[in-house]
Amino acid sequence: MGTVSVEVAADSADTTRPMRADSRPCAFVVADVFTRTPFAGNPLAVVLDAESLSAGEMQAIAREFNYSETTFVLPPVCRAATAHVRIFTPRIEVPFAGHPNIGTAVVLGRRNDAGSNPGADQFLFEEAAGMVPVRLIREEGSVVAAELTAPGPLEVSPAVSARDAAACLALDVDDICSLTHQPQVASVGLPFLIVELTGRDALRRAHADLSAHARILPPLGTDAVYAYCLDRDPHRLQARAFAPLDGCSEDPATGSATAAAIALRVLCHPLPGCTSQWTVHQGVDLGRPSLILGSVVKEEGAIRQVRIAGHAVTVMQGCLL
Prior knowledge:
Layout (H helix, E strand, L loop, with lengths): L25 E8 L8 E6 L7 H11 L4 E5 L8 E6 L4 E2 L3 H17 L7 E6 L2 E10 L2 E8 L5 E5 L2 H7 L15 E4 L4 E5 L3 H6 L4 H7 L8 E9 L2 E8 L4 E4 L3 H14 L5 E9 L7 E10 L2 E19 L1
Parallel strand pairs: 2-3, 4-6, 11-12, 13-15
Antiparallel strand pairs: 1-2, 1-17, 3-4, 4-5, 6-7, 7-8, 8-17, 9-10, 10-11, 12-13, 13-14, 15-16, 16-17
């Protein structure tokens, strides 16, 4: 998700041709992310040892899986990094995303434990948005979750009118809440239009208006809307994310948007410094409930660090021929 795309090589133009004869078969693992339960959360395909694939082949494979994102794991360019990770939606390559990092880290952690590098708990992924530190989380010695640190600082664009935000979500202007912040495009590596709603009823009624998205979002530098409301606690949110322009009508769990949203809320808080913990529920209206945990560090009025954590469970594995 997010309109910031990554320029790919010229060989990506033809994504309909079969894989080259010199492309080695690639193992893949499908994990459900931000959940402990198979077939909940947000599915992710992780293609391992993908260095023989062209950018065009990666895009074609991502389109074949048709998940909100697919990751491809390659050898790192920087010696300090664990791996070079490329992230593709069914339509474009994106510089950063939340659930792909969590899921890829859990898959690689479990792979390492079964191989020659057991017990490694700190990863550093090279991505187009920058270096992404990821920490594995274990229970009884097994990798069950991961926590990432957002690669970029919080960037906030000028406010968007409540009328335009409501149009994107097929809601009334009265459903938009502007008490903490106006609808705004915010990013810690991938931009989203962040919109607070008045309550759970408005969130339940929200859906993407494709024509409004096409008219309003591209000039703002994004193609996705993240809508949320408070859930009985100022640090507990319910959320939904829509990106039909990117081939994803609704995303079950969106870590990068969650990171931007909680950072924006903390930035708007009058305290100059604090460390806050967040719980975000997403995917409920899709029948794929997801739980995203976040933390934000604010010092001297500026956001210094944003972290996102969640569980992941593997559900499938196979080989791309």
